[in-house]
Amino acid sequence: MTSKQDFFLDPALEVDPGEVKWYFISDYYDGPIAGLAVFRGRILWFSCFEEDIAQHTLYVLQELSDEELEYEIEQKERFERMVGTHLSFDLSGEPLPRVTASEECQARYFRECEHERFFLGPLPRPIVAWFDVEPRKAD
User: Fold this and answer.
1) CA 68 to CA 122: how far, in whole Å?
2) Residues linked to residue 27 through DSSP beta bridges, in sequence order
3) Residue 15 near residue 129 (C-beta atoms within 8 A)
4) pLDDT for residue 2
5) Does the pLDDT of residue 90 top 80, yes or no?
6) Which distant-in-sequence residues (6+ apart) come within 8 Å of 53 by Cβ?
7) Does residue 130 contact residue 60 with C-beta atoms inside 8 Å?
8) Which domain holds residue 48?
9) Buried (b) or exposed (e) across 43-70, using 16+ Cβ within 10 A?
């Protein structure tokens, strides 16, 4: 069975998931949905397709503008200060030392973020690479 993603994903851009390291998981629902990843020395946006959220297996990597990358890194640092480091990693993909903010600080963060825009799915720009953490069975 052909999925929607098959129409968007060039087989030549598929990479081994071992080449991709999480840097910050900014959207999480029973697994990573979107955020920042390090791929071949570059920090890129990663996301899964909306219809793949339940499985959390297929991800795309996309470039961010300098301004977007700066904003996302600021959001990573803000989350680490106000919530904790449990969704953050260093540039080699290793989890940061575990730090958790106070409950009051966490509540303030989520109140402040309540109306912020969150990305859901790939951005409307070219895909640099994609990977499947659980290879699909042949049709």
Assistant:
1) 14
2) 34
3) yes
4) 43
5) yes
6) 29, 33
7) yes
8) 4-132
9) bbbbbbbeebbeebebbbbbebeeeebe
